[in-house]
Amino acid sequence: MRIVLKKGRLLDPTLGLDLVGDLLIEDGKIKGFGREIIVSGEDIEVIDCHGKLVFPGVVDIHVHLREPGEEWKEDIESGTRAALYGGVLRVACMPNTKPVNDSPEVTAYILKRARERAWVTVYPIACITKGQEGKELTEFGRLKKAGVVALSDDGKWVANSALMKRAMLYAKNFDLPIISHCEDPTLSYKGQINEGKISAKLGLKGIPPSAETIAVLRDLVLAKETGTSVHLAHLSVKENLPFLRWAKEEGIPFTAETCPHYFTFTEKEVEGYNTLAKVNPPLRTEEDLEAIKLALKEGLIEVIASDHAPHSPLEKEVEFELASFGMIGVQFLLPLSFNLVREGLLSELKLLEYLITNPARVLKIEPPSFKEGVKAEVCVFDPEERYTVTEDLIQSKSKNTPLLGREIQGKIKTVIVGEKRFDF
Questions:
Q1: Catalytic residues
Q2: pLDDT at position 38
Q3: Which fold, 90-363?
């Protein structure tokens, strides 16, 4: 079977490609591209992509699939289906499941379930410390052999600096990335939302910017001392920017990510005690939002991930202080991120670098691309289509997002994965 995607704008950050033309897929693999591809014979499908963007699948390196242990919120099948609908064709799942992924046995279970049920490729991330308790390192070598691509205690910061330094050194030896959840728990303890006027108004304990920035700075200093790269997850505050600039100037090995909700929403979303906007790190101020956009424009932050965190109504339709932190996001990663292009902050190609090439580089995997002979992982995206986010539209089991009832712009129309085609 041959598929020709005609007259689309072909974008591939791995090749620096930006061309209006045709893409040929044959037997589930990329065959070639050009301004015009003429094919003849039988078994040919032609997809008209005029006015659409055609690019390789997105790589989301920060997703919570909740399996094993909390399948009522999400499981590998539903979470990866949501990813597919969003053009995210590879996901890396965080280890704070139940039980946590701190052993080769849990890793093997996740990979087995992914082979059986996943719509897209799943990469397990394992814990840095056993039980995510911050006391004893996991067995990095055995975990890598089992199939993990990175290490993180996501949801918890490894507060013991000596232990984190040792983790960095061991991770370097095993060529495994370290992903840090930057949050000093002594400063964020029992915090609910961003510390400021709104937290005071609502009578909720705040989480100060220092909880994040102190952790960021500590991890950058350790990265400098060990020569081991650290990936800083879900950055949200303006106070980080001077330290990120310093680290760039010093040549410290690090990468950093943010999430669409930190350049889309502010703390005002929680007014009225809206638990759908309760997330960790919390939504911040307008100044923080603009600073995150600036960091993306400057290249201080070079990865955009969803931090897809499903929760059922049991965890969200309760008093604010009892509600779980987190919102879903993998299905809407692309349309929200494309607002950065609409605002003139990033080009389409640069944005796709932040969504495809750079995340793959952090995980040390080959990114999806239009290179001849590689497996087809192709998205057709209409950047102009507008639609309202409804519960029926959401493919996740959980519906916890402040986007509900709102109109957004940009929609995946077709996805091709190997020899499978999906139209939405």
A1: 307
A2: 86
A3: TIM Barrel (3.20.20)
